[in-house]
Design brief:
alpha+beta, 5-stranded mixed beta sheet, about 30% helix
Length: about 575
């Protein structure tokens, strides 16, 4: 394939440069009202969803956009999804004929990987919102469905996008409020678990309708003109916040390095680099010097690559505010079409989230070259997903479940790393043991913080977890634990942490390392052990206070042997 030239993408819609009449108090009231509307969408989805991966894990995103597809508000859920929804809304609307073909009560479905940035299981539901017959925006929810007729419910070894699930390239599941029964039956006919998919589709539609009602209430309360003025002020303020951070960084080009274990099909490691270019208050994230698109599914479509850049920058520089379009304006993203971070159809994309997540870490690794005190050391660097499925012995009914699992976070110049958290999935959870054991054929034998898994340092890295599942029926699994071949890095002489891994112990006594595998049969009595990575340390271990070392020992974060090796000054 001929190597293509890099392309520059604006991560946020530029300012309109309007002079508005909105005062700061009204602007803040409108901003929080829009955030409240997004949170109502989230609550409606959680309360009506069928699958634990949505109502417990929170593997979804909800957001509200204006007519120009500028993000007005989002509810805390899956950050890596948030920056992708504008692309999906745009493509869904275009593929049903454009704005002129939208009507009040329409609901659209869309899941083409290169428009959503995801695998087909991440279905996007979009609802146009009308005020006095004028289109004013959209509500959108992207949620993970348990199965949509991929070659397996979850895959690590696909070689093209058409093995990854049924494609809905922008269709109306509701027309003017009426269910399109032909499409609905097609959805159910293309799933191994139609009951779960039906319930989750209905929940997403409900969430979008609740969001649309709440969005309209904001506009009706303030009036269309005042609402629009406040939105422009809100965006301008968010832009100012991000720019104020990058003004502190010396102009220059800073390069970070990362490495994927493999592409899911071959076993070779995949090193890559990302450059962060700072000029004044502008920041450019450059993905042009990355490998070509892979033959296995570790390709991150453009929407997720831009989203990873948005997440990295807004979490670092957004001062804890709920992000909106204004926060994205200072960011430019450079990609090379046909590369791992901008693949072209039909390149496989099922594991899109793993390179996107590592991109966030590598962006921080680059910024650390200029301002190490502003970023953390590496986290465990993976979401350590497991998907289980099979047929229940008692009923013959197909079942499936899945979840990401938390890792330790990197320490920083001010404190130890967080434990049992994520970056790109920072608002998600893993399912409570009681729910797992009530719904699925396994027993959780162990769930514990992993001793000695965090990197040593003046500030210690956060701990990973050890989680053991003992199967009570034959069960197929797909595991995705990247960063099993290289340790999470420390900063400023901080130590490395434990990497990720997954192991299966079969009843015959054999042991199998399965960090990345598809359709592995774990028979009744077999045990899946998941070992998630810790976070890297920050600063020299010799500078850790004796009191902190003793506290770590007392609380079980580290063993005495580990302490004597890395903190000998605490025993003098």
């Amino acid at each position: 394939m001929k190597r293509r030239e890099p392309v520059i993408h604006q991560a946020g819609v530029p300012s309109k440069g309007l002079v508005t009449n909105s005062d700061p108090i009204t602007t803040e009231v409108v901003r929080h009202a829009l955030n409240s509307a997004a949170n109502q969408m989230k609550r409606a989805l959680i309360r009506t969803a069928f699958s634990p991966i949505i109502y417990e894990v929170l593997d979804f995103a909800v957001a509200i956009y204006d007519r120009e597809l500028r993000m007005l508000a989002q509810a805390p859920s899956l950050p890596i999804f948030m920056g992708t929804l504008n692309f999906a809304v745009a493509e869904a609307v275009k593929n049903v004929g454009g704005e002129g073909k939208l009507f009040d009560g329409d609901v659209l479905m869309y899941n083409w990987a290169y428009g959503t940035g995801s695998h087909p299981q991440d279905m996007v539901i979009v609802m146009p919102v009308f005020f006095k017959e004028e289109l004013i925006g959209y509500t959108a929810i992207k949620g993970h469905w348990l199965d949509i007729a991929a070659k397996d419910p979850y895959c690590t070894d696909t070689t093209d996008v058409f093995q990854e699930g049924t494609v809905f390239p922008g269709v109306k599941i509701y027309k003017k409020g009426e269910l399109n029964d032909d499409i609905y039956r097609m959805v159910l006919g293309n799933s191994r678990v139609p009951k779960a998919v039906s319930g989750d589709l209905d929940a997403q539609v409900t969430g979008c309708r609740v969001g649309a009602k709440s969005f309209l209430e904001v506009v009706e309360r303030f009036g269309l003109e005042t609402y629009r003025d406040a939105v422009e002020q809100m965006f301008d303020h968010g832009e100012t916040i991000i720019r104020s951070f990058f003004e502190k960084i010396p102009d220059g080009r800073y390069v970070g390095h990362g490495e994927m274990d493999d592409n899911g099909v071959t076993t070779d490691k995949i090193p890559f680099e990302i450059a962060v270019e700072v000029k004044g208050s502008n920041v450019r994230i450059d993905f042009s010097n990355v490998p070509d698109e892979q033959g296995g599914p570790v390709n991150s479509p453009l929407p997720s690559t831009i989203s990873a850049s948005r997440v990295a920058i807004t979490m670092l520089a957004g001062y804890g505010e709920s992000p909106h379009e204004g926060h994205f304006r200072p960011i430019e993203v450079v990609t090379r079409p046909g590369s791992m971070f901008d693949p072209l159809p039909p390149a496989p994309c099922f594991l899109y989230g793993w390179p996107a997540l590592q991109a966030i870490e590598v962006i921080y690794n680059a910024i650390a070259k200029a301002l190490p005190a502003s970023v953390p050391a590496s986290s465990g660097g993976c979401i350590c997903s497991v998907v289980w499925w099979g047929t229940r012995e008692a009923t013959g009914e197909a079942w499936a479940d899945g979840a990401p699992h938390p890792v330790g976070q990197g320490a920083w110049d001010g404190g130890d790393g967080g434990t049992m958290l994520h970056i790109a999935e920072s608002a998600t959870r893993f399912t409570p043991v009681e729910v797992w054991e009530a719904r699925n054929p396994w027993i959780v034998d162990r769930l514990a913080l992993a001793q000695n898994s965090g990197g040593p340092g003046k500030y210690r890295g956060g701990a990973g977890i050890d989680l053991h599942f003992r199967m009570t029926e034959d069960t197929y699994i797909t595991t995705v634990c990247d960063r099993s071949k290289n340790n999470p890095w420390g900063l400023q002489d901080g130590g490395e942490a434990r990497p990720n891994n997954a192991v299966v112990r079969l009843p015959d006594g054999s042991v199998h390392n399965v960090p990345k595998t598809t359709r592995f049969l774990v028979p009744k009595g077999g045990v899946l052990e998941l070992h998630t990575g810790g976070g890297g340390g920050y600063g020299s271990p010799s500078e850790r206070s004796i009191e902190s070392v003793k506290a770590d020992l007392a609380e079980g974060y580290i063993s005495e042997d580990f302490a004597r090796e890395h903190y000998p000054h605490a025993f003098q």
